[in-house]
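Predict structure. Chain length: 562.
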Amino acid sequence: MKDFSNAIIECVPNFSEGCDMNIIRQITDEIEKVDGVRLLDVDPGKATNRTVVTFVGNPYAVIDAAYLAIKKAGELIDMRNHTGEHPRMGATDVCPLIPISGITMEETVEFARRLGERVGNEADIPVYLYEYAATADYRRNLAEIRSGEYEGLAAKITREEWKPDYGNAIFNAQSGATVIGARDFLIAYNVNLNTTSTRRANAVAFDIREKGRQKKDEKGKVLKGTDGEAIWEPGLLKNVKAIGWFIEEYGVAQISINLTNMNTTPLHVVFDTACERASARGMRVTGSELVGLVPLQAMLEAGKYFLLKQQRSIGVSEAELVRIAVKSLGLDELAPFDPQKKIIEYQLQDKGAKKLVDMTVTRFAQETASESPAPGGGSVSALCGAMGASLGTMVANLSSHKKGWDHRWKEFSDHAAEGQALIKEMLYLIDEDTNSFNAIMAAFGMPKATDAEKTARKAAIEAATIYAIKIPFRTMEVALLSMDLAIQMAAKGNPNSVSDAGVGALCARTAIKGCYLNVRINAQDLKEHPEVKPLLAQAEVINAAADEKEKEAWNIVLAAMK
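Prediction complete.
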């Protein structure tokens, strides 16, 4: 059987309690007491009387934590007294599992079914499976399963076609029923309108959602097909589910949206389409909010999209792209938006890890000057390469905004975006060079008492040394690209910054020369190794190319200064 101990899945249970923080805390305490899971986000909503919780971990730990949370919610939440704006059918209304890494969707489905069986049998809560875990096509859609909500569940659960997948087909008055499944990453997103009308918010929701609306004649009667079923007019956006509601807490109507595939329909397209349809109906979008977490990719794409609309360079930092996205989408209208808490990749970062790139310049310099052999020449060379790429990117951005060059903004924006990619990889290589050195030291520290241990130690040293050759070699490759960028900016960029482009080329050249030395010294005992020999040959080529490009950059810069 496959080992899932290093796999990661995300779990996003929705609990039907958004007001009593004592109850919410007791539920999340059940999650946090399970080893191997990490609670990322708790997002209560008073008007919806619903809390969305997000946690991640290895699949075994996640389904243990999910079971305990669902069981506790069933004990603490009485659905007979529950009211809220959001559709719901149980104390734990829905509990999806989402594959993040090291696990397929099909494998995630198996864990969803294990969880469903345990909840149904041990907690005595009826369970329906949905999305990829569904046992029938008509049960894939959450809205179809939840149709009739809690109030209609007592009658619905007795019908043959709506018998639960796990648990008894008996109405549990306190807990209701729970929907468990496996799905793709879903973005829960609300768009704020300058109206209090739920009907008008629904009109926009019907415009944009994939399902659309029922087709009607001039008198408002629903038209039906030959099968007697209502005819539907599809909406504008694929993989979008949406309804309108009024949020008393904020005093505005919202379009509540579930975006089930951000690659098909990006977040910013949802926002802009909602703006367009709201405007066509006499309303205005004032902002939006994210419920739970959002992938970094969605925010970066949104930031680039809004910059491109302004004919501005997209070659800015990741932090700036996120900031532009937050402001453009109005994500901070109702409450402060903290990217460190709302973006899933930032939540998953090891906050305790010490990185060279996070040090101040002074600290980095002093760390390098210390008695420790790392960071050494490889990390410092990569730092030079990062600064070279940064200078080339700076000139590209300045050129993009140069007065009189408006027709060339896209050209320089593309160069700046290229530069940002080079900077990002160089920053990674700063720490990775030191990590590769530490790996060699760890291999030398392995036991060598027996023949088997000696063999394992030798293999580990060789593997670590080869990696320690590949890292500075990669730095050489990236730095050569940085030299090309700097030379292009010196030749055709903003003439006021030609010397900056020249310095960028020299920094990149230093990175190449420094890493050339690292490649050579690390490869001393492995020159004929089949993995190492071609790297040494290519390092010679890059080293020679750097000399030629240095002359080219120098001549361009000096000629511009005459």
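Summary: The CA atoms of residues 208 and 364 lie 51 Å apart.
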